[in-house]
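New here. Your pick:
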Amino acid sequence: MIKNSNINSNSRLDDPILQEIELNKVEIGKHASWSVSSAKPGSGVEQLRDNNLDTFWQSDAQQPHHITIQFPKKCYIENLLIHCDYKLDESYTPCKISIKAGTILHDLQEIILTELEEPSGWINIPLSFNNNSLKANLLQISILSNLKNGRDSHIRQIKVYGKKISIENYTQYPKFNSPEVSMFQTLR
């Protein structure tokens, strides 16, 4: 478990943190099944994933609040980006977050526990350790407490990034680039 990991934050969808990550990584959250422990009507998973920083997920129960991200198979996960805005959300802003990973809900292990101080923008949580990506079927983000002892939480967006892998890395056949072979690449 890592406490108080290296966290960077910024505030727009076109900000440098997001652009730098998207150059070398791919957003894999779209392949997952998302669920939340509770939500106010009109502030659910759809708002958490709609790429609109004006909408948000709002919990509606006692803490801790959970966001569960389940992939159909084990994935290599590099970064988790969470967007919070203290200026807009005040006591709804999370201040203590736990990230757990595993294959199913019953074998989750805490990998990161971090405390945030008035976060405003994208919070980049690296999930690769010693140059090895986290490999998991399931991620769970737990909000343990909010600023100013708030009860419900607001999170505006979450993005999950994995390695960008080219298909050439998975083919077992060598590349044939000689003129003799290229003559037979197409049919007339």
Remarks:
- Confidence is low (pLDDT under 50) at residues 4-11.
- The chain has one domain: 2-182.
